[in-house]
């Protein structure tokens, strides 16, 4: 199917609730994504903070293949072995006494808001130290890169976030141009997100290589330079 559909098909057949990028991704590995023409992008969006291990991680791919050959969706009127094993692993490995699996973002947000005030400190106390160190190192590198770009172009009024969910608020004449900037970034080979018209958002995989972060912001620098000419 690759190449048989175009970005214009979105405008022809889909309700325009969103404004997707002009390119169509067709495959990915780790933190790299390729479009229909074979152009490579560094993914700093992470599927909107979903692909915590990057794309096509071998262990996850194998687990999906194994399950596809066994049992598909059966609804929440039943339980199943994988969900029981995952719940047991989470309880035994974290602060939690019970697990609540959601099937929508609305349910997840509601549960998170109700639980956040009472469990936040417990979560931090039980997270794996090497993972936290790796995320902290990557967070610092991303913030430093954004601040460096801002210093060169007066691009951002604020850079903020926790972990690898980081936002950069556009400043001055760049305000309102977040979508334009992400489109320019895509032309340079970088996938980023927006959070409204004034904020760039980044949510890369937790294990994104440091070299990919460095290259991502070389590409973002070129995009910002083009927008500020």
Automatic annotation (TrEMBL):
* Keyword Coiled coil recorded: no
Q: What SUPFAM superfamilies does the entry give?
A: PLP-dependent transferases
The EC number(s) given in the record are 2.6.1.81
User: Which UniProt key words apply to this protein?
Assistant: Aminotransferase, Pyridoxal phosphate, Transferase
* InterPro entries listed in its UniProt record: Aminotrans_3, Class-III_PLP-dep_AT, PyrdxlP-dep_Trfase, PyrdxlP-dep_Trfase_major, PyrdxlP-dep_Trfase_small
Q: What is this protein called?
A: Bifunctional succinylornithine transaminase/acetylornithine transaminase
- List membrane-spanning regions: none
- The superkingdom listed in its UniProt entry is Bacteria
């Amino acid at each position: 199917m690759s190449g048989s559909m175009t970005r214009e098909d979105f405008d022809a057949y889909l309700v325009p609730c969103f404004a997707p990028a002009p390119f169509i991704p067709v495959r990915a590995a780790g933190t790299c994504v390729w479009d229909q023409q074979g152009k490579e992008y560094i993914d700093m969006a992470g599927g909107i903070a979903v692909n915590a291990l990057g794309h096509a991680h071998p262990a996850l791919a194998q687990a999906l293949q194994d399950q596809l050959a066994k049992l598909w969706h059966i609804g929440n009127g039943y339980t199943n072995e994988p969900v029981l094993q995952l719940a047991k692993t989470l309880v035994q490995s974290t602060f939690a006494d019970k697990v609540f699996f959601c099937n929508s973002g609305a349910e997840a947000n509601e549960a998170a808001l109700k639980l956040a005030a009472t469990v936040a400190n417990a979560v931090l106390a039980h997270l794996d130290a090497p993972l936290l160190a790796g995320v902290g190192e990557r967070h610092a590198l991303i913030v430093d890169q954004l601040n460096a770009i801002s210093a060169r172009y007066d691009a951002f009024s604020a850079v903020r976030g926790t972990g690898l969910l980081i936002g950069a608020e556009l400043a001055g004449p760049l305000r309102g141009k977040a979508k334009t900037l992400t489109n320019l970034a895509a032309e340079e080979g970088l996938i980023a997100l927006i959070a409204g018209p004034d904020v760039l958002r980044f949510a890369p995989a937790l294990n994104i290589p440091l070299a990919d972060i460095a290259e991502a912001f070389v590409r973002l620098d070129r995009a910002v330079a083009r927008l500020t000419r």
